Amino acid sequence: MDEQPSRKKSQGRPALSPIEKQRRLVARLFENCVDLDRQLNEDSGHETAGEADAVLLMSTFNQRLAFAREVAQLEREDHPAEAKAVRQKLNLFRPLGFTEEVWNAIPDSEKRLAPGKPKMPKELELARLEIERDEELEKLRGMEAEYGEEPADIEALRAMHGNTQIGRPGKDILGALDRQLHTAFYKRRDLARRDVEEQAQGMGRPRKSYKERYDYFTSIINHCRRQIAEGESKLNLVDLQLRLLKRLRDRANRTRLQIKTSLGPALVVLKKDLIVVEDQIKTETDIFNDFQDNYITMSDSQIESRCNSVVKKIKAIDSLEFSDDEP
Length: 327
What we know:
Elements: H1 18-44, H2 51-76, H3 80-92, H4 100-105, H5 122-147, H6 154-161, H7 173-189, H8 191-200, H9 210-233, H10 237-260, H11 264-294, H12 300-321
Helix pairs in contact: 1-5, 1-6, 2-3, 2-5, 7-9, 10-11, 10-12
């Protein structure tokens, strides 16, 4: 007897329309630009630096990004020779995290580029991505006009489709609180030194007393800690593990910035600290990948146990970063 042809099984979700595919592509490109810009801001260090250094570090950030955008535009216009010349300027320009004064004080022998092809600067990666984002957005607007549909709201698209591969929400509220907390912490830590400098320079009586300013920054720190604790308490295990990885990467970035401006024994200690943090990042990444592979087989008690373990690790980072914040 002839076999009856088997009925074709459903393949799940229906295929996306061309315009929906384009919307999702645009959302991802916008989100990727935001993510890269966040990384560059963290590498720059201007958000956590003192007021004077923040302006100078921001200058480095803006000048490097200007070079990168010029390169990307020249590449798009098919001017390879001109693009190569500007990229060389970008490669030789002081790195993120350095003010002009600090960079000029470093011996030329330590500024030379490593042999071989220079690593792709993140600024150039962002500049190229911005051009691709804008071109794909223009295509989307054309498709929307062709289909007679209203232009989609970019923020709404990001909210629906813009999560990065690691699942970070489009707006990183906890990350913003982290930066605010560290800024207040650094400013409070430096209060005594700044008072001494002001008195030595004859700058007169500060508008507020040391205690008033200390209490002000303490109130910001306490507020951020409460908000962070509340936010972390609402995270599931996946987001908690991603939160731990982000905290470790932030710590590694801050340590790298400190290494750039440290000398002697302090430099040795910081380099050792960086090795430890990088090892922790690798270990926690392996744990997270293992969880993704096996979470279906995990019991509720195993998931709860791992959640508690991750919370303890995050608290351990807090104790290391803020152990010396008392006057």
